[in-house]
Design goal:
Elements lengths: L1 H15 L5 H4 L8 H4 L9 E4 L13 E2 L7 H6 L4 H13 L4 E5 L9 E2 H13 L1 H7 L5 E3 L9 H4 L2 H10 L9 E5 L2 H9 L3 E4 L5 H5 L8 H9 L8 E2 L2
Parallel strand pairs: 1-3, 1-6, 3-5, 6-7, 7-8
Antiparallel strand pairs: 2-4
Helix pairs in contact: 6-7
């Protein structure tokens, strides 16, 4: 009876939020309620952009993998900040006709086993499978370079030029207020917010703090706060 009830509820929600069942296809049996799936943020959002290191991931990759163990699927799964939730929320956002993207300071390293775009793609492939990862995050949705390599000061430009590149490459026409950035670097969040975007801080913690139960980076609690605040307001800087 209970198994049938769960199936019925999920199917019912699926008809309203066409991606909830996708979570189970990614290995998740978790059911997410209205505090995660309410969509009042959607009308004022044209793109959701995630930082990569210490936002999507727990530990900083350094933008390059030099040891094979760090390129293994087991390690990569463990290094997601909240893998199960990310597997749910990325397709869910996309199902609302809102593109998703990644802005990273990581760059290609000719001496690394994996670096830059290939490293990010490896993580996405592990999370969603190669075909699904490209559907969710096409190559045009990933901007990865460090401001210093272009003669810029990261403390002044933040992720602004990455965001401009993503919007241009993906053909998104939007106002600054319709852009959402999730980032563990409060400086990037503040710069984005000062430019009229909606910046959301994702607190990143040390390995010791994570071991004690601290939720780090982009996780379900960050998203729940985003939903609760209906996606925030233009120029809003959300520091949790």
């Amino acid at each position: 009876f209970f198994k049938g009830l769960v199936f019925t509820v999920v199917e019912c929600v699926h008809r309203h939020h066409g991606s909830l069942t996708e979570a189970s296809t990614m290995g998740s049996n978790q059911f997410y309620g209205a505090e995660f799936t309410e969509t009042l943020w959607v009308p004022k959002t044209k793109v959701v952009i995630f930082d990569f290191d210490k936002t999507i991931t727990k530990k900083h990759t350094g933008g390059s993998v030099t040891l094979p163990v760090y390129a293994e699927e087991t390690y990569i799964k463990e290094n997601f900040a909240d893998l199960e939730f990310f597997q749910f929320i990325a397709p869910f956002i996309k199902a609302q006709s809102v593109p998703i993207a990644i802005a990273s300071f990581g760059e290609d390293d000719p001496e690394g086993l994996l670096s830059g775009a290939k490293l990010i793609r490896k993580y996405l492939d592990v999370a969603f499978g190669p075909a699904k990862s490209l559907t969710l995050f096409p190559d045009t949705s990933v901007a990865k370079w460090h401001p210093e390599s272009r003669g810029k000061d990261e403390k002044k430009v933040g992720k602004q030029e990455h965001i401009a590149e993503i919007v241009k490459n993906m053909g998104i026409k939007c106002a600054a207020s319709e852009i959402v950035l999730f980032d563990d670097d409060s400086h990037n969040v503040k710069i984005a917010s000062a430019k009229g975007m909606r910046g959301w801080y994702c607190p990143a913690f040390s390995s010791k703090e994570i071991a004690k139960g601290k939720a780090t980076g982009f996780n379900r609690e960050v998203w729940k706060d985003f939903v609760k605040k209906k996606g925030g307001s233009a120029g809003g800087c959300i520091i949790m």
